[in-house]
Amino acid sequence: MIREKDSPEYFLSEHLVIHFLELPKLKGLETGKKLTQWLYYLKNEGKEDKTMQILLKENENIARAHEKYIAFTKDEELMDAYEAHIKWKKDYNTGIFNAKEEGKEEGIKTNQQKIAAKMLQKGYELKTICELTGISIDELQQVQINLKS
């Protein structure tokens, strides 16, 4: 049985339905449809057009959300914390990406050294091993030393 991630006391069933709401495809505002109103608000918050003004007058929940948004953006301490969090997420993701790249490079280098070791054991010439594996003469000499020890 699958459980809800943040609330494991809730079981998820095969009756789960997921809807993807694509904001870029939203053309205009259809009055009377709450979902469309919210999508329009989320896509256009921060812009001051006539449609947004009408929406804020017609839907009190969206008007309250707009007030919270204005209060949040005017609070320098909250904005600093938000920007610091966004910066942290970007730095974290960059660190993860760089760690993966370093790991790949290290794995490739280790594999090259293993292949070079096998080629040395089979009697290939040093120049040929360097050409085929892409490792330098110095690295190959280190592989030779490691084989002897």
Report on this model:
68% of the residues lie in helices and 3% in strands. With 149 residues, the protein is mostly helical. It has two domains: 11-80, no CATH class; 95-149, no CATH class. A hairpin with a 7-residue loop joins β1 and β2. It is elongated.
Task: Kindly list the characteristics that best describe this protein.
2 domains; mainly alpha; 149 residues; two-stranded antiparallel sheet; 2 strands; 3% strand; single chain
What can be said about this structure in brief?
With 149 residues, the chain is mostly helical.
Poorly predicted residue ranges: none
Helix and strand string, N-terminal first?
Answer: EEHHHHHH
The assigned structural class equals mainly alpha
Strand order in the sheet with the most strands = 1-2
In terms of quaternary structure, what is this?
A: single chain
Radius of gyration (CA) equals: 30 Å
In helices, the fraction of residues equals 55-70%
What does the largest sheet look like? Answer: 2 strands, antiparallel
Average pLDDT figure: 88
Distance between the termini: 54 Å
Overall 3D shape: elongated
What's the number of structural domains? 2
- What is the count of helical runs? 6
How many distinct beta strands? 2
Write the layout of secondary structure elements.
Layout: E1 2-3, E2 11-12, H1 34-44, H2 50-58, H3 60-74, H4 76-121, H5 126-133, H6 137-148
Antiparallel strand pairs: 1-2
Helix pairs in contact: 2-3, 4-5, 4-6
